[in-house]
Amino acid sequence: MNIIGSRQYADACKMTDEELLKKLTLNGIKLDRESLEKLVEAAPRASKAAFQALKNRQFTSKQKQGHNQEMVFACILELWRRWFPEKPCFELAELKIKDGYERFEANDEAGAMNLWEAAFADIMGLAEKHNICKTKDLDLQFDEFFDFNDWLSDVFCSSWNLGLADGKQMQKRADLSRALLERFKDEKDIDATIGYWRNGLAESLVELGQGEQSQALYRQWLTENPDWTWGWIAWADTHEDSEKTEAILKEAIEVEAITDKTALYNALSCYYKRTGNEGEHEKYAALEEESRQAFAPARLLGLAEQNDAGQVNSAFSQVLSQLLQMAPPAAAMSGRVQPRASASGGASGSAFASSDVGRKQPCPCGSGKKFKRCCGSG
């Protein structure tokens, strides 16, 4: 339920406490501070508190038994915001994030970061309180159009920009990275989540003059995950085109666990071009192209760098199944196949556009992206 920015919530914000309570009473819900606090303590979201209140509603004999769910939700969210500002919920955190983007659009990046830092603290507190240890479970607590990791990428970018001129802000960025790595240590996607936070911590430490600690962390992480290609590249980048850059990338190329070395060849090719070694630049550019061609089929199937036979067969079966589903019915084979109509009446831009696929679910096309970021983006 998306109540933030809705007409009902805008109306609720204009009401007095008494008017909000009256609205709830008309919907069969009697609340005071004590009873709302009990709901607040048990629920991570105002929507859950509202559903519980609706479940327990009571009507007098003169009341019409019905309810406006959106209005109930809006009233409870606004009372929560006013009466218990020290007790966060995911909707109020999302509201801070929204206000932060408005500040950002108004060229107030520092103001945006203040709101985002407050929202981050609320979210991490809620994750700990309700034992949320994976970002995919965290995403379920937000509106379907909000993506936690997408927002974090904006937070990391803004904190980096501000941190270059303010060491305290850079330290906050390092602390934020540590908090994510500790809270969500069971994450499996090393490139999209863990790796991003690791790099955020390491590069922040370099800017803070703690380069040795950054190097030690990269060595530890790459001992644990030697196949983390982008970790090797990020580590090399911290040395700013020194001999150490070259040594790290060449060490990575020798790692047997990395079968697709395309990105590493590219990094070395670019390094040699920047440092004026044209012969080595051309050598690794050729190796990059050769590797790219060799691994092109695997990328088309949406496979990662390392996959066993079972994963390859599974990926191929999934793509084949999708192709069969796209085929027109036999009865229509003799005629012209029309494009599937969209909700707006036009032709759908995606062969996989379907109301059966949730926007936060993996896209059926096999890209590895979420549906809303791929075929569902239209």
Low-confidence stretches: 330-355
Strand/helix succession = HHHHHHHHHHHHHHHHH
Mean pLDDT: 83
SS summary, helix count: 17
Topology of helices and strands:
Elements: H1 7-14, H2 17-26, H3 33-42, H4 46-55, H5 69-83, H6 90-105, H7 109-129, H8 135-139, H9 148-163, H10 167-183, H11 190-207, H12 211-224, H13 229-237, H14 243-253, H15 262-274, H16 278-300, H17 309-326
Tag the structure with descriptive keywords.
378 residues, mainly alpha, 17 helices, 62% helix, elongated
Describe this structure in words.
Helices cover 62% and strands 0% of the residues. Helix 4 packs across helix 5, helix 9 runs antiparallel to helix 10 and helix 13 packs antiparallel against helix 14. The chain has 17 helices and no strands. With 378 residues, the protein is mainly α. It is elongated and about 80 Å long.
In a nutshell, what does this entry contain?
The chain has 378 residues and is mainly alpha-helical. It is 62% helix and 0% strand.
